[in-house]
Amino acid sequence: MVKSDTTNAVISDVQDASKQILEDKLTIKLHVKTDEQKKTSKHQAAMQLDEKGFVGFIGNVPGLDVNDPRQFSKAHYNPKEYFQGYVDSAFKVSRAKGHIRQLNSGWNPLIIFPQSDEIWLDVDESQLRAFSGLTISNTLGAKMSITPLSVESVAMERSLERYQSMDAFLWKVSCWASKGRYPGSIDINQPVFLKQWPNFTRLLLTPHAMRIAALLIQGPRTLLNVSQVLNVKPQYVFVFISAASALGLVGQTRRGADLLVEPDEIKTNKNQSLLSRILSVLRGKKA
Question: Do 92 and 139 belong to one domain?
Answer without folding.
Answer: yes
